[in-house]
Amino acid sequence: MAPVTVNSGPVGDAVGEAEGARAEMEASRQTVAESAEPRGEAPAIAVADDPRILAYRDAIRAMREGHYGFGVDTGGDDALGALGNELRRLAGHLDWYFSHASKLQEITDNVVGGLLLNDVLERIFESFQTVIPYNRIGCALLSDDARSVRACWARADYDNLLLVDGFEAKIAGSSLGQIIATGQPRIINDLEAYLAEHPESQSTRLMVREGIRSNLTCPLVSGSKPIGFLFFSSVERYAYEGVHQGIYLRIAAQLSALIEKGRLYQQIVELNQRLTVEQEELQHLATRDALTGVLNRRGILDQLDGQFSRSLRDKGAIALILIDVDHFKDVNDRYGHAVGDSVLKEIAWRIDHDLRQYNHLGRIGGEEFLVVLGDADSSHGPAIAERLRQVVARRPVSCEGTEIPITISAGVVEAPNPEAIGDYETLVAIADQALYEAKNAGRNRVAHRLVG
C-alpha cells in the first residue's frame, strides 16, 4: 500500500495512535530486554542479540513509512514472541484503519462533486460499497418542524422498490426519535423478527416485502440540527456490525453537510423553475386578450415589430391583414354586450384556428383584429384574407338560441421591400386605408395594397 500522509481528521488520529503504539513498543522492548537479562549463575543469550529484535525494528520502520505487512516469525511463547504477536495485531489494525481511511477520503472526494441532492445521493450509492455492505440506500428528510420524516430518494440493485419517494411517517412514537436523540447509527440485523415485534411499522413491512433483511439507519445532522436519515439496507441477515457504525460516524458530519447543501440547491432550482413558469404565465397574461384569448394589442404589435425587423435583416417581404367586424355596433345594440362578446370570441376562434402556426392573430381594440403573416405566407396576403372572410361568413354565430349572421371586412398590405416603408406603424396605417376601402365598397370583402 502507498504511504499515506495526513495532518488532521480521522487519518491524522490514526497516525497519532500509531506513534503512541510505537512509543509503547519501544518501552516494551526495553522491559523485555531487562526481564530477559541473566539472573544468578544461569547463562543466557542477551535479548538484544535475538534476531527478532532486528526484524521487529525493520517492521516498525516499514509501518512508519506506510507499509503494514508483518511477515516476521515471532518464534515461541517467550516475551519476544508475545511482543511480535502484538506487533502483528497492530500492523493488521493499522492496515485496516489506513485502508478504510483512504477509501473514505476517496468517497468524500467523489461525493463532494455532487451539486443537487439527487446527484449527491447517487454518488453515495456508487461509492460506499467498499466500506459498508448494502443492496439498497434510501434517504428521508425531516419536515421543518421535525415532527415527520419524508422519503425523498431511494436506489437499489433490484427493481421492486416499494418504499419510495413521498412515503411519510411521524417521528413521535417511532424508533427514529431515539436515533435523533442519541445521534448514533442503529443496527437491525433481522428485520423479519423486528416486524414481528413491531407489526405497526409500515416502513419495515415494505422493506421486508422488498426482500431486505438487515438495516443500518444513520442520522444526518448538519451543524447541530438533525435534518434526516440515511438508510443502508441489505438482503442478508446480520450484514452490519459496530465497525460499520464507526465508519459512518467518521464522515457523518461531511455527508450531512453535503446532503443539506444538495437539498438547499435542489430547493433553489425548483424555486427557480416555478418562478420561470409563473413568469411565463404572467408574460402570457400580459400579452393575451382577456376576452378572446388571442394576442392583445401589445402582444400583436410585439410580433409585428419582430417580423418587421427580421424582414429588414433578411431583405424579405412582409404582409399584414387588418380585420373589422361588419355592423358590430348593431349586434351590441340589438342583442346586448354579452352577446357581442360571444360573437367576438367566436370570430377570433374561427380565424385563429384557420391560420397556420407561424402566423399571428391579435385583437388591437374593439372589433378590430390584426394578422401578421410569417415569411412563408407574406406573398399570399389577399388569398389568406379572402379565406378568413369566408370562414367567418360561412355560418352564423349561435348565441343563446339565436343565429346571428356575421361578416368581416379586411385590408391587406404587402411590402416586398419593407426598407422602403420605414417602420411597421406605416404598414399598419396603409392596411387601415385598405380596410377603409373595403368597408366603403360595401363591406364583407377584401381590399389590397402593394407597397415598397
Write up what this structure looks like:
By secondary structure, the chain is of the alpha+beta class. 50% of the residues lie in helices and 17% in strands. The protein has 3 domains: 104 residues; 153 residues, Beta-Lactamase; 154 residues, Alpha-Beta Plaits, CATH 3.30.70.270. The protein contains 13 helices and 13 strands. The strands form 3 sheets. Strands 3-2-1-6-5-4 form a 6-stranded antiparallel beta sheet. The protein has a 5-stranded mixed beta sheet with strand order 8-9-7-12-13, sandwiched between helices. Strand 1 and strand 2 form a beta hairpin.
Short overview:
With 452 residues, this protein is of the alpha+beta class. The protein has helices at residues 9-35, 51-64, 79-112, 117-127, 176-182, 191-197, 202-210, 242-286, 297-314, 328-335, 337-354, 381-393, 424-440; strands at 136-142, 148-156, 168-170, 186-188, 214-222, 225-234, 318-325, 360-365, 368-372, 397-399, 402-404, 408-415, 446-450. The chain folds into 3 domains: 9-112; 117-269, 2-Layer Sandwich (Beta-Lactamase), CATH 3.30.450.40; 297-450, Alpha-Beta Plaits (2-Layer Sandwich), CATH 3.30.70.270.
